[in-house]
Amino acid sequence: MPRRFLLLAVLCAFVAVAAEKPGLDGFDSFADQILKDWKCAGFAVAVIQDGRVIYSKGYGFRDLANHKPVTTKTLFAIGSSTKSFTVTSLASLVDAGKLDWDKPVRDYMPDFRLMDQFATERMTQRDLVTHRSGLPRHDLIWYDSPRSRNEIFSRLRYLEPSKDFRTTFQYQNLMFMTAGLLASHVSGMKWEDHVRKVVLNPLAMSSTNFSVNDSEKSPDYSLPYSVVKENIKLIPFQNIDTIGPAGSINSNVEDMAKYVIMHMNKGKGVISEKNETQMTTPQMSIAGLGQDKELGSQSYGMGFFLTTYRGHYLVHHGGNIDGFSALVTFMPQDNIGMVILSNQNGSTVPTVVSYNVYDRLLGLDQIDWTKRLKERLDKAKASEEDAKKKGYTAQRPGTHPSHDLAEYAGDYEHPAYGVVQVKFENGGLRFKFHKLGGPMTHFHYDVFEFPRDEQDPEQKMKVQFHSNFQGDIDFLSLPLESTVKDVVFSRVGDAKMKTKTFLEPLTGTFARGPANVVVAMKGDDAISLTLPGQGTFDLEPVRGTKFNIKGLTGFSVEFLGDDLVFYQPNGTFSATRKK
What we know:
- By secondary structure, the protein is of the alpha+beta class.
- The chain has three domains: 13-382, Beta-lactamase, CATH 3.40.710; 405-492, Lipocalin, CATH 2.40.128.50; 496-577, Lipocalin.
- 25% of the residues lie in helices and 29% in strands.
- The strands form five sheets. It has a nine-stranded antiparallel beta sheet, sandwiched between helices. Strands 17-16-15-14-22-21-20-19-18 form a nine-stranded antiparallel beta sheet, with no helix packed on it.
- A hairpin with a 2-residue loop joins strand 5 (225-228) and strand 6 (231-234).
- The chain is elongated, with a radius of gyration of 29 Å.
């Protein structure tokens, strides 16, 4: 009997929370319509006013095929809403006197290094978390990468900036990853453990975790979905633990409501009011105005975007990762906040829901955001379809690849991004970069296309191959960032070309007229070339028995029987092995 009474009390409390606020009358019908209009499998919402949860409910399904409903305990990936957790953890270190927002990162992490030397020396903790490093996103360095957090950190130096340091807002996940490593370095514990200690535990956020692998062990977690050709489609979970401090947290609206309340209470119980103020006041301006007059100019605090909605100061941060979209948002001056978690990829649902709740609780006329945004999307789609019907294309007809397809096959490497594999299979080419890629089709000249996502083959990416003076395919380039030059991946030789068994028979002395050329082992996995009067050069594997001469553009050698053939911009020469 006592246990039944307790259960009844809990259920009654939930009903009270879900129906308490008159301003939200009719919200259930609105939410159900949102699911239909946006083809969303499910979402959960928690609304906070005056420091307490006034409404909390799940809508739709966390598992569509099995009709498992979304509840207030359902775990969703919150994506980039994680960023404010990372800033909060740093703020706790500042409060403890272990960190200074405005001292150089290298004071704490001497091995921090970017391509821009000035940014390397001057970057501060504040810069790391305000998107003003000068770097564009460069997300494919980490997305699906097998490299660890520290391995990616060590390769930041190879990423090209697109703007001068501190001049322009450019959204950047890698700097937040770096901020997490910094927190780990200063605190002496993993980023995950530090966030748990200083944020999750004080707020009793016991359901929150740091990996989709952990979510899948929960009895109540959502599957990820996407809308493909107007149909809801189940997609695979995406593990982003490597970039964790920028976006790997998973939570439910019950836990996240506690987090929002903490920030609305000026950081009480977790960080100082001073640091909360820094997080929620402008640190970096964002150029331009949006299309909607209801939204004011934007800036970025520390882990939060800042704007106004219909004249009311708004703090917010969304989150998008494969199959999930989230929004943490609050109006500190109006004591209203909420969290919306959805299981739809790249979804507008959290934004539309939040604006509707704000309209209701602020006593404003409700704007039909669904109608407005859908009209905008429909116009964009119509424009795209019109261009297709009219045959507008950048493709040059009647062209052919410059080489046999098999010659494009090989491994191509960038020091930060890693290795691209091009394989020749069943008479065609196949592209692979981490988990990205698929069958390649010829576009024009030495440009090919491949599907960005094999689940949606209409999303294409292009790759261009480039030949050297000798006609060998030397490197490929990919347009991975629109604001910097195409990223170059240099061709690397077969793995066997770096073995002692393969290399040692190539060594020896070769006569070129009266002069001798010497090829010698360099360790167990490389060879060098010594030219009389010119010094010694490393030889870089190309293919077969051909090597580039490192440091001399357009110069290569090939071992053909007893001859060592030199290919140079000014001609071809040979030397003969001395017996």
